[in-house]
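Quick illustration, no need to memorize.
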Amino acid sequence: MRAARTVLDATGNRFGVAITLTKRIPVRAGLGGGSSDAAAALHAVNVLAGNAVPRHELLHFAARLGADVAFFAGGAALALAWGRGERQFRLPAPPAMPVLIAVPPINVSTPDAYKWWDEQNPSPASRGPVTLDADALSTWGSIGRLGGNDFEATVFGRHPELRTLYERVAETGPVWVRMSGSGSAVAAVYKKKEERDEAAQRLGTKGQQLIATLTRAVPAAAASPL
């Protein structure tokens, strides 16, 4: 609603919109469902307004709405981000590979996760410079070696069952596995569809929902209607 109102205000409130939202991405799972909804609303209402808001302004709106909204609104398949996430350097997507997402019946509020992290890290150590090129993030294996998730230790401390789920997923042999965002979902990438499907059988659906999907890049023409 905030996204829709932002565009309507910018275009003079010449009309209103009726929005029906069908949630398919689990909420409070760290999968960006709310942020992607906001990005979609920005683009949809702008299309109804005849694309009255230029693309660069729309992305500024997205950055003000939330850190992840700018990523989804921009349509990048992969990006290095800094600041609040509103500053991004786009990179080519890594190869499409099978993915398994395990979603436990535990909801983690993003504000709570940040509060817990701040409590545990009142004086976080500064991090040194990092030099990267596109090749360093060209495969899921290299992304796994370079990347991490600072929320894991904090959220796992509050919810030990999430650590157990993470370890169970890691034992199925993925090339990359991480808790997604601030939790609670655990995502894993596999070399082959058969390996992903075997992992799903090993994990089962008792205690978690399993989503089998594929990493992919949205074609540039479909990523943004502008």
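The CA atoms of residues 91 and 134 lie 7 Å apart.
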